[in-house]
Amino acid sequence: MENGGNSKIKIKLYKCGFCKNNLAHVFRHHGKEVRMFPALVVLIQHPTMGNILYDTGYSDLIYKNHVPSFLYNTLNRSYVSESDTIVAKLQADGVNPESIQKVILSHAHPDHIGGLRLIHDYELISTEQVIDTLKNGNVFQLVFRNMKPREDVCYQSVKPYKGDTFLKQYFDVVYDVLGDGSILGVELNGHAQGQLGIYLPKQQILFAADACWGTDLLSKVKDMRLVAQRIQNNYEEYVDTVRRIERFMEKHPKIKVIFSHDAMEEVCYE
I need a labelling partner for 100 at 20 to 30 A (CA). Which of 120, 212, 230, 251 fits? Predict the structure, then answer.
């Protein structure tokens, strides 16, 4: 059963900090446009597995890495206050951060792992590649030591989904993220090796992480400037993933695709 009986799953989106970039510096043939790119975090309230996060956004740890932080914020200025952190957002909504049982991590960049150390005693779930990067990566891979999880965190790599699903028509690898079919994962290579997107069948939402920097930017991938191309782990795979998502969106217009930096409101889905 593809939806895993997930009729009671509820989700809420939070914006946990943001960065600013001029799109003219990212894409050729694009006029000057300074855009805010929010770091979206998804709270998944699961009926049997408790509160789960997909990514954790920025935290002020991004400012506390000396020279690497200076360089990062020079090239990609980030903005986050204490009230923007996922812990503060959860508390403002009456959700105890200690209730977080699992964190599903899309990939190991600062705007996705910034809140990992702010939460205790949880299971971190992702692909083997992302987990390895998080454990062994360095600043050249945008993995800062002070953002790595605490020692009380355990790791679980996702396993392939053995059932039938239409997702396999578009993505080479599909995962059973929680082991019960309630959340399916898709591998979105290009921006980061092993990057994990998640699909929630009942809500018909695909969270596509940084497979692209925004829904309206899908068509501009071929105009990406060389520096922006070099930021990707593999630009050719990045383009291939974008094309797969475009085909997916064309064939399934009722399914909402949300990227981590889309200009979304902090909304709930049931």
Answer: 212
